[in-house]
């Protein structure tokens, strides 16, 4: 199962980095490894609070920062107040429902050519681009 593999990968990265494997950290790691959504810190907090009553949003923020530095997760801002997080996989794009906020990943390799085109036209060394589509999901239509 892919989620188990993600968790194992994350666990090994923590181990190799010499980072303590606290119950809170492992719970957040497992949550992110198994999440099919793009949760905010508040969503993670609400989902894990019953499992770990001592959990705080500060603990979640610090652990997500750690995971981000280890390149296990990506932080997505979408111009919203709260960032969303996802397990780091191959480069992809997002389509977001403007009614319910649901986010779905999609791959479109041709868009990577935009970086090369921009480099040729401007002389910039482009190292990142963002592309997001907005619409209405099936459930909200």
Structure write-up:
Belongs to the Fur family. This is Fur family transcriptional regulator. Keywords: DNA-binding, Repressor, Transcription, Transcription regulation, Zinc. By secondary structure, this protein is of the alpha+beta class. The protein has 2 domains: 2-87, Arc Repressor Mutant, subunit A, CATH 1.10.10.10; 93-135, 2-Layer Sandwich (Dna Ligase, domain 1). 42% of the residues lie in helices and 15% in strands. It is built from 5 helices and 5 strands. It has helices spanning 2-17, 23-34, 41-48, 57-69, 113-122; strands at 73-76, 84-87, 93-97, 103-106, 132-135. The chain has a 3-stranded mixed sheet with strand order 4-3-5, with no helix packed on it. It has a two-stranded antiparallel ribbon with strand order 1-2. It is globular, with a radius of gyration of 17 Å. The mean pLDDT is 90.
TL;DR?
The chain has 141 residues and is of the alpha+beta class. The protein has helices at 2-17, 23-34, 41-48, 57-69, 113-122; strands at residues 73-76, 84-87, 93-97, 103-106, 132-135.
CATH superfamily of the largest domain: Winged helix-like DNA-binding domain superfamily/Winged helix DNA-binding domain
Assign an overall shape: globular
Q: Order of strands across the biggest sheet?
A: 4-3-5
**Which class do the helix and strand fractions yield?**
alpha+beta
- What is the CATH class designation of the largest domain? Mainly Alpha
Instruction: Give me the CATH architecture of the largest domain, please.
Output: Orthogonal Bundle
CA radius of gyration is 17 Å
Query: What oligomeric assembly is this protein in?
Result: single chain
Low-confidence stretches: none
Measure the end-to-end span.
32 Å
Helix proportion = 40-55%
Mean pLDDT rating: 90
Element pattern in H and E: HHHHEEEEHE
Q: Main sheet, how many strands, which sense, barrel?
A: 3 strands, mixed
Keywords: DNA-binding, Repressor, Transcription, Transcription regulation, Zinc
Family: Belongs to the Fur family.
InterPro entries: FUR, Fur_C, WH-like_DNA-bd_sf, WH_DNA-bd_sf
Protein name: Fur family transcriptional regulator
């Amino acid at each position: 199962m892919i989620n188990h593999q993600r968790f194992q990968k994350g666990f090994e990265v923590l181990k190799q980095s010499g980072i303590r494997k606290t119950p809170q950290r492992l719970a957040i790691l497992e949550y992110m490894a198994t999440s099919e959504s793009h949760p905010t810190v508040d969503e993670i907090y609400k989902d894990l609070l019953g499992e770990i009553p001592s959990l705080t949003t500060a603990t979640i923020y610090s652990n997500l920062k750690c995971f981000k530095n280890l390149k296990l997760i990506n932080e997505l801002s979408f111009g919203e107040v709260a960032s969303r997080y996802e397990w780091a996989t191959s480069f992809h794009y997002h389509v977001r429902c403007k009614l319910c906020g649901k986010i779905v990943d999609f791959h479109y390799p041709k868009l990577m050519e935009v970086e090369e085109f921009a480099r040729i036209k401007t002389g910039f060394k482009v190292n990142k681009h963002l592309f997001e589509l907005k619409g209405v999901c099936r459930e909200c239509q």
